[in-house]
Amino acid sequence: MPSALVFFNELSDVPSKAQRELLTLASRFDQSTLAVASEVSQDAQNVVANYGLSKLFVAPSQGDVFVDHALSVLEASVKQSAADVVLVANDNFNREVAARIAVRLDGAVITDAIDVATDLVVTKDELAGSYSAQAQSTGGTLFVSVKPNSIDDEPQSSGQQLEVQTLEIQSATAAQVRVVATEAKAVSDRPKLTEARVVVAGGRGVNGDFGPVEDLADALAGAVGASRAATDAGWITHDAQIGQTGVTVSPQLFISAGISGAIQQKAGMQTSKCIVAINKDVDAPVFEIADFGIVGDLSKVLPQAAEEIRRRQA
Amino acid sequence: MTEETTAPLKILVLVKHVPDVQFDRHIDSDTLRLDRSESVLSELDEYAVEAAVALVESQGGFAAGHEVIAATMGGKSASNSVKKALQMGASSGIHLNDDALAGSDTVATSKALAALIEHVGAVDLVVTGMSSTDAETSVVPAQLAERLNFAQLTHALAIEFDGASRELTIRRDHAERTLSMAATLPAVLSVTDQANEPRYPNFKAIMAAKKKSITEVSLADISLSAAEVGTAGSRTSVLNATARPAREAGTVINDSGQAGIALVDFLAEQKLI
Ligand SMILES: Cc1cc2nc3c(=O)[nH]c(=O)nc-3n(C[C@H](O)[C@H](O)[C@H](O)COP(=O)(O)OP(=O)(O)OC[C@H]3O[C@@H](n4cnc5c(N)ncnc54)[C@H](O)[C@@H]3O)c2cc1C
Ligand SMILES: Nc1ncnc2c1ncn2[C@@H]1O[C@H](COP(=O)(O)O)[C@@H](O)[C@H]1O
After folding, report:
1. Structurally, how many domains does chain A consist of?
2. Are residues A70 and A154 in the same domain?
3. Is B97 an interface residue toward A (CB < 8 Å)?
4. pLDDT digit string, tens, across residues A54-104
5. Which of A244, A291, B24, B272 has a 20 to 30 Å separation from A68 between CA atoms?
6. Domain range for residue A299?
């Protein structure tokens, strides 16, 4: 049975849903190890132990070095663990780190994975999810970035003893890239867009007011997303953008409101399990992929639906 | 950006020739390769070309001796994407075309592109798109930074260049933060669709592009063997690819005042609430 290494650049006290999914995936393999390029609290260690991982490499970074520290930690932990497969999150930062170390160590890299079997066959999305493909390494360590919402989070009942080892990282000879300023983003109480079970997204049709979209999202305990037209207009932050150049989501339920359904927009949401569309134009392309469509005004339909959900839940 | 002139910059912008996203795209079930017949310049690479040309314009323009070389790796028709980049303002083009390149994964692609960049020589800045619209991996730029030992400035939301210090600064999203990051050239810069608005070439630019040259190079020219690239040089192999069944349109209703309720009924039926 091959062994797996999971790599996190950062790990908070409460691992994110995507991180827990990666830990679940790793627990399928023997002798799985986690490497983290920052401090790991005791609380976080307790959660990790519940996934049956046996070892943790930690290597807190010295100062704000962008990619160099993560690269050193991943390289060292791949070498030390001698893992056959390395699992990382599918965001840009983690896949870049994995892809660079794959080049450095002459390994293989596969992105957009939705599953990794114990024989190391990877199932992945192609062409914005319109194809599903299987691929494997032709030799060398396999680096895989796994999409969130692909694996069911299943901690094992009994926690294992976790062996913690601090990695000695030689500080990179003068980092090439300096971080000159850091701005924290506003934090939201809503679930993370890429991990949410329900996403309600608004487009140009919201005409400046995301209130009804947010209200329905809250009634469904979902996340709020947007089309590029809405983010470009400045009605909502760029982080909310779904699509080819935004985030990809694959929730159980996607509600599209006032979005026409352009090809670049669909690229980010067409693998959702169930799609509902509200648009006042019967010819909007979004209706071609919607499981349930409403031709109507979102400023009437969304509040009515939110109120009805709250009434039934009361 | 500072307006002063600087030592001439040699910028190489990577443009990929990809199947048009506006049409249905197909992966052949026998060869497991993408049908590349209806291909165009990847729309995300237009932002890279714009960034490269705008950077030169901010540093005294092409008259100051700066160069923007549009480079591609792909089959015969990929030169059309280089032509488009020339129309957008790139000064010359280079096209790596060799049958042995077909089927390259990111490891093999970045190996070939790094060799091409080294063949061009003395490149200060490599500019790329944020992602190819066909492979969608977004990792070739970082792999190039690794192979060339250039600074990695990827996924730029905004770009600034200081000619005097030859320092490039970008903004990028990273976890719950937005970072400003700086590096001295040489660097690999990947550009998002937030960074600029690609220009449409006018008639004059289209005519001017006809006079610009595109150099064709083979693997031998860049000192790589067939075994190092293509399927042979790739570290991954594709076992199968299946089209997901197209989504079908479901029920569509007209709102006559109760559609919000009908929506909740639907969600309840689907056990989504
Ligand atoms: C390189 C590139 C990358 C791109 N990447 C992305 C991306 O990642 N994500 C993305 O979303 N787009 C992306 N786009 C843009 C995309 O092509 C579309 O322009 C965009 O998705 C349109 O957004 P929209 O549907 O909100 O606006 P529109 O296309 O203008 O549609 C608005 C819709 O709202 C409906 N409407 C209006 N008022 C109401 C109302 N009161 N009630 C109900 N319906 C109403 C209208 O009938 C219309 O269908 C990209 C484009 C390019 C070129
Ligand atoms: N075959 C290619 N020819 C030219 N540029 C490429 C090629 N493949 C990738 N690139 C560049 O690398 C970027 C990211 O591609 P990718 O990693 O495939 O998503 C693209 O936007 C291009 O700028």
Report:
1. 2
2. yes
3. no
4. 899 999 887 667 899 999 999 999 999 999 999 999 999 999 999 999 999
5. A244
6. 198-313
